[in-house]
Design goal:
Shape: elongated
Strand order of the largest sheet: 2-3-4
Number of strands: 7
Largest sheet: 3 strands, antiparallel
Structural class: mainly alpha
Strand content: under 5%
Length: 681
């Protein structure tokens, strides 16, 4: 039996220095004023078109005057700024904490458009005026915001149902579902139908959700010009990112938007006449259209909208946390949802609409690498100013749609990349995870490609089928519940993807042959290990079963331990095909490394076996980059054979523990307790 030398024992970690304790996370870093202004304005430009679209759609559907529409846009921008400050800066503590304190910008929820139009037109149909429709909308928005604040802590408790396979899928479909938004900007005015809805090519407004879908090219010359602006803007963004450094690289999107707009102005394709005619100053006053009215049906409809927004905010929060390197906990989700609720209530009071996290700007955070939440706070301040200065807002609104669309292509795709990054944590050797991700992407892609299928459903159901993000999020959550939280009896302790899990009672009733067959893949068929573990049964629980394997391994002789270590194949060798250890590394991406790194791994493992008499053993779950495996492996060549055998044995135990966790699945009390504690912290 190997005893660990004192020299090999890990020393106590050094206490952090005062400088380390005072280190500021990039999220909380307060940048110089000039950088905050530039970065914040960049966020506003990327966000502006989406921010004003909802008021335009609602105003057109209700038949509001142009003056009323201008007031709605000003109120929307003003409240967007307040909502973003609440989310990024935050206030309060504990159960009364509002705002996740991440660079998460707030905007009007697109999921609320159809329900709000239905609420408003229903009020008009009862004999009211267009303003009466607005007041009915505002009443439902105010109550739905209060409902969201109350529901936040209860929704946050469901965080354990959002493992990486769910959050990664949601983030991925958010990015994919946003691509048609960019496409709609690029083809603006040249293609009749956009994103599943009929769009008036003269105004660009959504005039009907029931009109026949038609993607006919109305103006080929205009489409070609739009594509030139879009691709030109995208090219500027990419070239700045490639060839610049420092500050310029982080404002690449802003440079691209300015360049595209400047060219459009020079060529006469953009006019600032609207900005010249707009007033300099306008005051946003609460309840300027009158006292809101309240309807149980309208409130219930808007509450459903906010439930959907909670799911999307959760996905956006995880996406942002992944990008900026912040762990997202249950209380963070609750704080983010409370901020949505408070902003929504303020929206109803300040003549605006429901608010939620804007996924569009999550991509900008990833693309620029600027993680400070104070940048979003600066963007919020800019939006408040725009809401009070209509002339400035009109100038920003003059940015051509194709220019916005070209920049958005890079931004929205960056969100999808964040989803892929999250999905790297998922074990796809378990077929259930593949089903969850594949079906989620399929359902979201269906609605994203053909949004008009929502018209086949009753009005109350269209909110679920009118958005690829909404349907994708619901699909991911329900499939995770179906495949990982339902079925089975007793604690499952063994099995493979596609096979029925074996319960603890079944293990205790197994004969020697069945026991060895069940656990052979976990422990490389080491019969002596399986036999000693089997002799310790029956087992009271899965903890005792795991302990039996660990005790048998650690109490074994030197010869038995060497036999176990030699049962591992060499990485990157011809004899590792089909071996469980090789499959672990294949799932972690070793086959995707370039040829040079793969050759380095082969050279290392050959030299390692020659020196120590057993292969280099590396736990695949702990590998982030195989280049580091090569560097670490060569440094280990300086160890003594005894010390290296200890390290190899510990690595093997980690591998077996991961496999044991996989076979136990959700019935593993250790994993369940760990997950519960992480949720509560």
């Amino acid at each position: 039996m190997v005893s660990i030398p004192a020299a090999a024992m890990p020393s106590a970690p050094p206490k952090p220095s005062s400088a380390t304790r005072r280190a500021v996370h990039p999220v909380d870093e307060l940048l110089p004023l000039q950088k905050l202004a530039a970065y914040g304005f960049q966020h506003v430009l990327a966000f502006y078109a989406g921010a004003v679209l909802v008021p335009i759609l609602v105003a057109n559907a209700l038949g509001l005057t142009e003056a009323q529409l201008v007031h709605l846009i000003n109120a929307d921008l003003f409240t967007c700024g307040i909502a973003s400050l609440i989310q990024a800066v935050g206030f309060g503590r504990g159960r009364w904490r509002f705002g996740i304190r991440l660079p998460l910008l707030q905007g009007v929820a697109f999921t609320a458009v159809s329900p709000m139009i239905a609420i408003g037109t229903a009020a008009i149909a009862r004999g009211g005026q267009p303003v009466d429709g607005l007041l009915a909308i505002y009443g439902s928005v105010i109550v739905a915001g209060l409902f969201t604040i109350a529901a936040a802590p209860f929704f946050a408790r469901l965080i354990r149902y959002f493992p990486p396979v769910v959050t990664g899928s949601i983030i991925l479909v958010i990015g994919v579902a946003l691509i048609p938004v960019a496409a709609g900007d690029i083809t603006f005015g040249a293609i009749v139908g956009q994103n599943g809805f009929y769009v008036d090519p003269a105004t660009g407004s959504n005039v009907s959700q029931t009109a026949p879908l038609d993607y006919a090219v109305r103006n080929p010359g205009l489409l070609l010009k739009n594509l030139a602006y879009a691709f030109g803007t995208l090219a500027v963004v990419l070239l700045v990112q490639r060839f610049s450094r420092g500050f310029l690289q982080t404002v690449a999107v802003l440079i691209g938007l300015v360049a595209g707009t400047t060219v459009s102005l020079v060529l006469g394709d953009t006019s600032l006449a609207g900005a010249a005619a707009a007033p300099w100053f306008a005051v946003v006053t609460p309840l300027s259209f009158g006292v809101p009215t309240f309807s149980v049906t309208a409130v219930a409809s808007m509450a459903v909208v906010m439930l959907i927004n909670m799911i999307e905010t959760t996905g956006d929060s995880y996406a942002t946390g992944e990008i900026v390197g912040k762990r997202i906990r249950a209380d963070d989700i609750a704080a983010a949802i409370r901020a949505d609720g408070l902003a929504t209530t303020l929206g109803g009071l300040f003549n605006s609409f429901p608010y939620t996290a804007f996924a569009e700007n999550v991509g900008l955070v990833r693309l620029t690498g600027v993680r400070s939440r104070w940048v979003v706070a600066a963007a919020g301040a800019v939006m408040i100013v725009l809401g009070l200065l209509p002339k400035t807002g009109s100038a920003v609104a003059s940015i051509p749609h194709p220019v916005l669309g070209g920049a958005a292509l890079a931004l929205f795709a960056a969100v999808a990349v964040a989803g892929v990054q999250t999905l790297q944590k998922v074990d796809f050797t378990d077929h259930r995870n593949g089903i969850v991700v594949g079906t989620t992407v399929g359902m979201a892609g269906l609605v994203t490609a053909f949004g008009s299928i929502a018209t086949a459903f009753p009005h109350w159901a269209r909110i679920f089928f009118g958005s690829g993000i909404t349907l994708g999020a619901i699909t991911a959550i329900l499939l995770n519940l179906l495949f990982f939280h339902t079925g089975g009896r007793g604690p499952g302790v063994a099995g493979r993807p596609g096979a029925r899990l074996t319960t603890l009672d079944q293990v205790n009733a197994m004969g020697a042959e069945e026991f060895d067959q069940t656990f052979s893949r976990v422990f490389h068929g080491q019969t002596w290990l399986l036999e000693r573990c089997r002799e310790q049964g029956p087992f009271a629980d899965v903890v005792e079963l795991r302990g039996a394997f660990q005790n048998a391994l650690l109490s074994s002789s030197d010869e038995e331990q060497l036999s176990l270590l030699r049962s591992f194949p060499e990485l990157a060798s011809a004899d590792d095909v089909g071996h469980t250890y090789a499959l672990d590394h294949a799932a972690n991406g070793i086959d995707a490394v370039d040829n040079e790194v793969y050759a380095d791994i082969g050279a290392l493992t050959g030299a390692y076996r020659e020196r120590f008499g057993f292969p280099l053993i590396v736990c695949a779950r702990d590998v982030e980059h195989y280049e580091r495996v090569v560097a670490s492996g060569w440094s280990r060549m300086a160890n003594s054979p005894v010390a290296e055998r200890v390290f190899a044995l510990m690595e093997a135990i980690r591998i077996f523990n991961h496999r044991f966790d996989d076979t136990i699945a959700d019935a593993n009390p250790i994993a369940a307790t760990r997950q519960q504690l992480a949720t509560e912290l």
